[in-house]
Write a structure and sequence with these properties.
335 residues; alpha+beta; Aminopeptidase; 2 domains; eight-stranded mixed sheet; four-stranded mixed sheet; 19 strands; 29% strand
Amino acid sequence: MSPFLSEFTDWLKAESFQFSISDVFNLTPDPSPAERGAIRPRVAPLSAGEGSGVRLGDIDSSIAKSISDTYVTIENQNLTFHLIPLNFSEIDVATNSIRPRNDDGRMLFVATQKNHRLIHLHEDVWRTQQNLVKSRIRSLLGRFKKVNGRHCFVERIDKKISSNFLNNNHLQYSVKSKYQYGLFLKSQYAEKFLGIEPSQNPENTLVAVATFSGGRAMKFGERAGQRSYELLRFASLSGYVVVGGLDKLLQAFIKEHQPDDIMTYADADWSDGRSYKVLGFDEIGAIPPQEFWINPVTFERVSGGNVVENKNTFLKTYNTGSIKFIKFIPKNNVE
């Protein structure tokens, strides 16, 4: 058992979660050819000069079987974790990269069809953001504290406040944004929901943040002339779920900027985007897996678009890509 798997399962035991371990993910038989055609593309060609140039999902089955995939399924919860270790035995020496893994597109299709959540957990994320990972897993399994959005109000906040909040509560940290909105729990409810006495914290408490891009005028196609924005980040206070929180932040943004649509992306390593669909977003496409470089000693992660000074000391890996969503805003809904 790898140290990663051992640490992860030890934590599950400490949390009293019942689970099973397998080296395959197979809730149902493989999809039929017709069903396979409906699977979103989740593979990307390797760059020129990087080995064989095969697509990450179209690898030979003998290669796939040689990879030590591990799946940890939480019993009676429709939730499985695909653990992805930084294992040197899986490194392609020619490209200094972690070898392509099993067909994540097939796995995601099977999971979605069975209303099953499939989480791809990379070892570097576990090592560097363990508290956030644990908090998110607890939330997925129903172990969270609840805050009612109706007891909160929305205010514009500055970049410093939003960045600090997101860097402490979002697995992908903060990114550059144009507009930042905060959801504050009214001080009179702090004791009820946060366990904080009013005398200890007389101020309203920031419990969620959403950030947005500037508007972009669409010039071509059916959306020509429309103004589109992007929801870049949303996070609630770690360990808490703010019921109706994202919707309240979205409505405040819509009222102020009157967009024609709002786009966003769900990280396919962690989400199938079901929460966006509840809020009226439509799934419209997918972004292929993105390249990352990881320092196997410090677990520092650098996106493929950034320069890595000494690539010989980093390993190249890929995430599972993203799912693209859009919410169209009828003008008669904008107050």
